[in-house]
Amino acid sequence: MSDRITAADVAKVARLARLDLSPQEIERMTAQLDGMLEHFADVDALDLADVAPMTQPFPLVNVFRADVVQPGLDRDEVLAAAPAAQDGRFRVPPTGGVEG
Amino acid sequence: MAAPAMVTAASIAAAVRAGTTKAADLVEQHLATIAAREPEIHAFNLVLADEARAQAARIDALAAEGNDPGPLAGVTVALKDNMCTRGIPTTCSSKILAGWKPPYDATVVRTLQAAGAIVVGKTNLDEFAMGSSTENSAFGPTRNPHDISRVPGGSSGGSAAAVAAGFSHLSLGSDTGGSIRQPAALCGVVGVKPTYGYVSRYGLVAFASSLDQIGPFANSVEDAALVLDVIGGHDPHDSTSIPQPHPSLVGAIQQGVEGLRVGRISDLPAGADPDVQARLDLAFETLQAAGATIVDVEVPAFSFGLTAYYLIAPAEASSNLARYDGVRYGLRVEAADTDSMYGATRTAGFGDEVKRRIMLGTYALSAGYYDAYYGKALKVRRLIHDDFERAYQQADVLLTPTSPSVAFKFGAKGDNPFAMYLCDTYTIPTNLAGHPAMSVPFGTGTEGLPVGVQVLAGTLQEPTMFRVAAALERSMK
Amino acid sequence: MSEYDGLPGDWELVVGLEVHVELATATKLFSASPNRFGDEPNTNIDPVTLGLPGALPVLNEHAVELAMRVGLALNCTVQPSTFHRKNYFYPDMPKAYQVTQYDQPLNVDGHLDLPNGVRIGIERAHMEEDAGKSTHVGGTGGRVHGANHSLIDLNRAGVPLVEIVSRPDIRSADDARAYVSELRAILVVIGASDAKMEEGSMRVDANVSVRKPGTPLGTRCEIKNVNSVRSVGRAIEYEARRQIDLIESGDAVRQQTRHWDETDGRTHTLRTKEDADDYRYFLEPDLVPLAPSAEWIERVRAALPMLPAARRTRLSAATGQAADSEAVGSVVERGQDDYVLTVAAAGGDAARALVHVKEAFADQSATPQVPAADLAQLTTLELGGKLTATQAKAVLAEIVAHNGGDANVIAAAKGFEAMDTSSLEALVDDAIAADPDAWQKFCNGDGKAMGALVGLVMKSSKGKADGKLVTALLNQKKR
Ligand SMILES: [Mg+2]
Ligand SMILES: [Zn+2]
After folding, report:
1. What's the start-to-end Cα distance of chain A, in Å?
2. Is A49 within a domain?
3. C26-62 burial, b for 16+ CB within 10 Å, e for fewer?
4. How far apart are CA B313 and CA B316, in angstroms?
């Protein structure tokens, strides 16, 4: 096994991703992710210093929309599909702290 | 398997438009086929019998009134269940979206319906399109119509199986790393991943935004061309949609392949089974006999595709799937505070493979690792793209196997995720490059199971790609 | 001058401001829902705003143009830019990421000159989308936990913002306040935003640290929730003193995000997050790069209206009042400087017009109803000694009340006779005779005594005397 990822990394990542993993799951996930990242050794061997990252499959630039209002969605329909709603708003458990 | 009626979508539409065939009858035939075989295949998450009948009645009425119901009049279509359908559940085969009814239609759904197509159901997939066997569905796997002990491929396994089993004339899938082409090969149908931006992604539930494309499954190259002629084109709701009209592919396939240069990738990663390799060799011979020239090309970075893909796709997915937080729609598992609710909801709602990819993608983007993983993967993506571009200066199309093997048995890939990922070795580089590619059925391999040959082409070279696919198809008749 | 106390000892304040401004578009940054304040909750929503599966963003061209206006008005370079995703979970952030400009912001490297001449650098002014609004509802039955919940309104989610980030060039609470008020004036004038702090369309976060002059920057705290121009200075000064107290008592300032509480006038620690922020920025794959053409940039630049600083300079030159005087400042702020110049062009006196407009036109729009010629005539009468300052005020009140009027006619109707200098001189002599004691003191240089004499003249003239003229006559007689 390589040392690309540790259980502590996996625990931190699970927290960032808002996934609750048990210690056993973290252990299993660490092994699986490590196995996958091991294949990255091939890529590490490449000289990529002068290669520009490719982020766009088809080169387009300046794609715009006119600033014109279009009909939106019906609030009642949307809130009816929500897990919880109250007073025309989505209801969630307390978020704690001050408004973000 | 139940052989679908060998009539083209175009001829069906022509008959419905002329009023000589009733869309209502076509729908009933398909619903009967579904009733007979769907229990063993499980291609669908949802069959839309009532909606299909209603749409058929509208189309027949239009035709009867002398109005044109459109180029796909009466043609039945199955939609992968990751395309939003207004008021109709769209689940991505995930518990986290079970029962969710989108308040809007995907652009492809609108275009299909406007063209007179009839949606008969929403098809099963690997959860959020993450997989190559449709075993990762939260609602149970789909079985291959050619051998129900085998997978249909994935992630668009339900859409491939629906066409192969005769449940619908056509279907749509989405392809992020091979999710249309690989199941098409395994189910013995035509499957196309167009150039990135060819078909609108608006309303397609995102897996990896820079790789996802919608494309058709069909019984013939011509049918596939017809669907793409309908759903292809610019959509102002998708900023990455190519803002120019596409030439008719139905028109293109009439031309032969004489004078075309067909490339063989000499440094293609090994791994194809001998039966698959044999069919590929025959495909080259067939095209040569039809007047094409075979040229050897190199695509050195091809072999890095898998590795780059398995960082880029999960990275984008980790962000795209963050919206499933239990606040506005979908599953919520109640908890004492919002943050605990997020964790409880997402942990209960996502399956193992989805969690694994979210974890991998989150890691690849996280502080301290971005440059080492995601950043490098983007550079590899450039290498792959540029290598392909060079190859397309020497060859008009490239030919590879679609899948390294014919359809495999359920559970064959065991518990090692990477073994499953290897199914997409030959399809993934295309998505990274943004290029089009399609799988065309080309005979059978081991145990009489279908084998697909993949035709790859450069950006917006769909017309040439379809010419070559059509030539391969003709040779099989 | 200052309403703030300043820092004790030789402590130096170092402040950088991050100002979020909602752009005055019709629709949101990436979708066609209305960008409108005060509507019923969740009525301005669409698939993009809700972060529905499958929804895709498309950039609002007008928002880009307004953002470019902001950049150009702040002397920034407008450059090609891209959008990133900033990933974090919060219930009013529907996609669990904010689309924002990261390492390639649209506007960079500008500056804003304060009326007092201090130049504040602008690091960047980038585009991003706003979040929705969370309302935190308290518990019932006295239970601290249990019944609490939050309600989410997404009308504001996706509203286009420009975040203007200053360099840490601000050195006093007064300058911070002046920066915000000058910035606000610019934003309003260029039509980029209504910049209403009370409605949240302009929100100020302050990065505050203190140091001894010449030493490296101290640890900074970010102050959020500063809701008025006035509290900008108060919050900064409170926070700086808090940091100084910490340091002077031997403690260290910890880097924190703090919340300004308007009611108790203090800053408070925001809930400390369990884990360090890791926003996992990456290029937004659903959008394409933004690269305004040179031609577009120049068109936007050319269409910019005259900015407040230039207006103040112009009005100062016309009136002889200092550019940072209160009169010039407030008249420019109200946009009535053009009007003052029109009064001057109509033959009126610019300086008198400035005073009248500043005093009497506060409730009027940028283009007052009073015809410029009427105000011009009033200043002419005043200047010619036909009306005293007090009389002019009364006439002006009449003119303003009727949206115009002939100053001569109004003065006559009020019985304001121009008092000629000889009869005024007689009254001055009478006053000297009536109070020789005061006269003597006045001759010895006692200013108070002059007031007494002028008061006598005003009384005997029944207010018709021009105070200035009386003073001049008294001084004349002294020699
Ligand atoms: Mg900020
Ligand atoms: Zn911001």
Report:
1. 42
2. no
3. bbbbbbbbbbeeeeebbbbbbbbbbbbbbbbbbbbbb
4. 5
Q: Is C107 helix (H, G, I), strand (E, B) or coil?
A: strand
**Distance from the first to the final alpha carbon of chain B:** 18
Segments forming the whole domain that contains residue B172: 7-229
Considering its fold, how many domains does chain B have in total?
1
- Distance in Å from the first CA to the final CA of chain C: 37
The reply to whether residue A91 touches residue C41, judged by beta carbons under 8 angstroms, is no
Give me the pLDDT at residue C419, please. 63
Q: Which of B228, B106, B214 is nearest to B159 (CA)?
A: B214
Q: For residue A60, count CB atoms less than 10 angstroms from its CB and return exposed for 0-12, middle for 13-18, buried for 19 or more.
A: middle
Q: What is the mean pLDDT of residues C283-310?
A: 97
A47-86 residues touching C, CB cutoff 8 A? 55-56, 60-70, 72-73, 75, 78-79, 86
DSSP state for residue A48 in the 8-state scheme: -
Q: Structure pTM?
A: 0.91
Contacts of B233 (CB under 8 A, 6+ apart): B200, B245, B246
Q: Does B371 touch chain A (CB under 8 A)?
A: no
User: What pLDDT shows up at residue C471?
Assistant: 85
> Is the predicted pLDDT of residue B237 greater than 50, yes or no?
yes
Is C41 a residue whose pLDDT tops 80?
A: yes
A37: CATH: 1.10.20
What is residue B291's DSSP assignment? T
CATH number for the domain including B135? 3.90.1300.10
- The DSSP call for residue B300 is G
Q: Tell me: the pLDDT tens digits for C192-210?
A: 999 999 999 999 999 999 9
CATH number for the segment(s) C421-478: 1.10.10.410
Indicate if the alpha-carbon torsion angle B272, B277, B279, B281 is positive or negative: positive
Torsions phi, psi of C353, nearest 5? -60, -40
Q: Which residues of B446-476 are buried (b: 16+ CB within 10 A; e: fewer)?
A: eeebbbbbbbbbbbbbbbbbbbbbbbbbebe
B235 falls within a domain: no
CB-CB under 8 Å, C289 with A61:
yes
Q: Decide if pLDDT at A64 tops 90.
A: yes
Active site residue B159: no
CB contact under 8 A, B307 and A39: yes
To the query of whether residue B22 is one of the catalytic residues in this protein, the response is no
Residue C68, token pair as written in the block: 């470019």
Instruction: Report A:51-90 residues touching B (Cβ under 8 A).
Output: 51-58, 60, 63, 65, 73-74, 77-78, 81-84, 90
As given in the structure block, the two tokens for residue C457 are: 């003249």
Neighbouring subunits of B (3+ Cβ pairs under 8 A): A, C
Q: ipTM of this predicted complex?
A: 0.97
Is B172 within a domain? yes
